[in-house]
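Batch job 17 of 40 flagged for manual review because the log was empty.
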Amino acid sequence: MAAAAALAILLLWSVSQTVGMLRSGGHSDESAVRLLYQVSELHIELLGSQLKQAAGAKTAAELEPLKQALYTAAFTHDKLVKAVGEQNLTPLHSLTELSQLMLRLQLGGTRAVKPDEAALLQETAGLFAELEESYGKLLSSGDAVVASQNRAIAETDEKLVKLLQKHSQK
């Protein structure tokens, strides 16, 4: 429910920004990259919040808000990567791995989340919090990607990929 409300607020904000740019002849005080970064950062924060909540899920059906937050975070980050270039901003491969995990967990419908799966979600949430912190410092005041933060994100992303792949091979 909270995720749907946050998504509605985000949609309204995005529409108002677009209308404002159209009214001003396409010019804005903020660059398109900055605006896209802000949207992407919000979705990364929402995903982090949903990951923390998912660690306490009792059934796979309770993971639906996480899955939705995951899809929107992946989509917006991918658009940001395309906007600034893959040479400047690392793609988040862990989001693909997390999507695969969500598919496996939800294949059984409303089955109970196993203790090892809950532990994995909790460990993932902890690592993702590191990524989220670096993501919050990703763009400089001049709207350039801060290389040190991008490296930190890439390193944490790699840790997440290894963790999630290790679990999928069990």
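Reviewer: the log was empty due to a logging misconfiguration, but the result itself is present. The mean pLDDT is 87. Unflagging and moving on to job 18.
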